[in-house]
Amino acid sequence: MSKISKEIFEQETEMCKKLSQENNGKCNWGECEKCGVIPLLYKLYKNKLLEDKTEIKKVKNKIISTL
């Protein structure tokens, strides 16, 4: 069972994508490439911990196409 709904996951990741595109890969949290927000949201939604750097990058790239 996920901790957050699909709607919340999509809303939050869309905000990350929008801010990343508007601010050249950055937001007030820092640089998207180094950020842990996407992996955390993924964990809370999919109930799966991302630990492998390649897997994390793949998920980030899928969500935020500018990375």
Write the layout of secondary structure elements.
Elements: H1 6-22, E1 26-27, E2 30-31, H2 37-46, H3 53-63
Antiparallel strand pairs: 1-2
Our estimate of the beta-strand percent is 5-15%
Mean pLDDT: 90
Major sheet details: 2 strands, antiparallel
Question: What strand order characterises the main sheet?
Answer: 1-2
What Rg, in angstroms, do the CA atoms define?
11 Å
Question: Which class do the helix and strand fractions yield?
Answer: mainly alpha
Shape: globular
Report helical residue fraction.
55-70%
Number of strands: 2
N- and C-termini, Cα separation: 29 Å
Structural domain count: 1
Unreliable spans: none
Helical region count?
Answer: 3
Instruction: Give, in order, the helices and strands.
Output: HEEHH
How would you describe the overall organization of this protein?
This protein is mainly α. The chain has one domain. The protein has a two-stranded antiparallel sheet with strand order 1-2. α1 packs antiparallel against α2. The longest helix is centred in the first third of the chain and has 17 residues. The chain is globular and about 35 Å long. It starts with 5 loop residues before the first helix and ends with a helix.
Short characterization:
The chain is mainly alpha-helical and 67 residues long. It is built from 3 helices and 2 strands; from the N terminus they run H-E-E-H-H. It is 57% helix and 6% strand.
